[in-house]
Structures are given as structure tokens and as C-alpha cells.
Amino acid sequence: MPVLTSTNSKVLVTGANGYIGAWVVKILLDRGYSVRAAVRNSAKADILRGLFPSHAGSGKLEFAYVADLVTEGAFDDAVVGVDAILHLASPLPSPSPDPQATIRPAVDGTLGVLKSALKNGEGVKRIGITSSTASLTMLAPVSDTPTTFSEADWNDAAIRAVQGGSTNPFVVYAASKTLAEKAAWEFHNTHKPAWDIATLNPPFVYGPTLLPAKTPAEIGGTQGIWYGTVIATGNKDKEQLGEKNGYAWVDVRDIAEAHVRALEKEEAGGQRIVVSSGSYIWQEWFDVAKRRLPGFPELTPGDVTHLAKFDNAKSERVLGLKYRAKEDTVRDILEDAAERGWLAKAD
């Protein structure tokens, strides 16, 4: 039996105006759910109003203003009257040399949502939390030997590295995701609330964006990395395209779908779930893109070795996910970019 059904169910979504969050809101609204989008201010709310005007006008999309997610009790009002929560809001790596500038907001923001749900979330049945494969391992290959990671793994190495003085922003980010997810499970195990939790662990997230952006530079995040690497001009040397810079990916629409299904599937409760389409080296993205983009430079692929792999069997079994292929994601990225006037129309 599903934990939630769309009829008369309301879901609080934090980070609702973000790259993944906007797709989550879209899927929920398309399914018939009511959505309470937690945003920092009215300008962020206006972005979602522009994307979903009919739902905002009908009251199916409403807003909770949370200026600072680490403020004590920041979500106390936002959780009242909702049936489930999807917590996507989390800081990106901070430019500050102090690792705690990234770690504390990640941990405190996650615990803040859970504390508010414990205090005021009488109707809450489940809370889904966006974690990352960074809580399983580093955001780059850690060995010259292909290695597969699963929900059984924890990135304690990142925590130890930060404790040892590392200020590498990607290591700090990995430590923040690991500590935040561990804190969530510890909180739930300690307090044993009526609601359960599920954590979702995606790698790099690529795909078209719903958000307004006038230039590619405004995309930001992981999709900004993809656009800058594959489409932007500049030298693409063998090292950049090869296995040392490979990792894993998931289409933004697939991880958004996973969030919604994590609320709907009873067996998802109490689970960590890796949500990964598969592994890649950058050469593979180029090989797909050159078939779609007029004038794309010819590149000669070599043998493909994926050093970092993630076992996605649980996501397929528990959530019933069917992942998009690279060809689908590239096609839709290029078509979106063409519609925005950033490049010539794809074939």
C-alpha cells in the first residue's frame, strides 16, 4: 500500500526553486499533489509561480518562506499540515577556508527539518532526504582499479580528511553530505517518531533545467559543469576526457522521479537508495553530443574504463526506476540550449 496518494496529500519541498527541486515540484503537481514550496524569499517564489502559474493560482502550489534554513525552528510553521516532506535544500561547497562553513549548514539544516517535523508535523508520514554518492565515496575515482559502491558504504575517509586539516572543497562537501546523512539516521533512531525516512544518493546530476537562465553561465551547479565541459569552447585534452576524470551520473528528471516515488513506495521507508544511471568518462558525452550538434569536433574514442561504479539495483527494485540513456539526456540538453538561443538547433 502506498504511503502517499495524490488525493488530498500535501508535500513540503525544501530547496524547491533549485535545479532538482523545480523538477520535483513539477512531478508532484502533475501527479495531483498539493505542494508547499519552502523558499528563501518572494523572489524565489516568483520563479516557481512563473513555472507553474495555474497551480499557484488554484492554491495547489503554496509557499513557506524560510530565510535561513539553519535558524532554530526555521521549519516549525512550514511542516504544519503536510503529509510528507522532501528535504532537498543543502549548501554547495563554500569558498570559505573553514570547512564548518559548509558542514554546519548541511547538518543543522537537515536536523532542523527533522526537529520541526517531530515538534509540529503531526500528519507527516515520511521524510525523503537528498543525500549524495559523496556520502559513499569521493566525487572522483579513488583507485586505479574499477570499484563498485553501494548503500552499505560510508565516506568516512572524507570525514577523517577534514579532521586532519583538508580544506579541499570537494572533500569538505563530501564530509558535509556524509555527516548530514548520518545525523539524520541517528536522529530517527534516537527519537523513533511516527514518520520514517528515506535517503536518496545521486551522483552528478545532468539534464535540462526548468529554471530561467539568460546565459549558460547562469546555469551553475552540476549541469553548469556538464555544459562548460562538453559544449563550451576550449581545449579538450586526452587527460580531461579520460578515465581519471570519469564518475557517475543521473538525469535530473530521474532523480526527481525517485524523490516522489520514495514517498509513494512503502518499502522505501528506512532505506538508503543509490540513484545512479551509470558511470561515464567525458569522452562518452562528447561521442553522443557530436552526433547531435552541427559542427561538433570529431574525437576518437579509446577503450572505456569506468573506475567509479554504483550499484543501482535497489532503486530499480524498490522504486521501480527505469533510467534515461545518455542519448536522451544529451538530446534534451541540446534542444533546451537551442530553445534558449545558446547554440544552433540540434539535428
UniProtKB/TrEMBL annotation:
Pfam families: Epimerase (PF01370). Keywords: Oxidoreductase. Residues 11-272 form the NAD-dependent epimerase/dehydratase domain. One of its GO terms (molecular function) is oxidoreductase activity, acting on the CH-OH group of donors, NAD or NADP as acceptor. InterPro entries: Epimerase_deHydtase, NAD(P)-bd_dom_sf, NAD(P)_dehydrat-like. The keyword Transcription does not apply. Belongs to the NAD(P)-dependent epimerase/dehydratase family. Dihydroflavonol-4-reductase subfamily. This is D-lactaldehyde dehydrogenase. The lineage of its organism: Eukaryota, Fungi, Dikarya, Basidiomycota, Agaricomycotina.
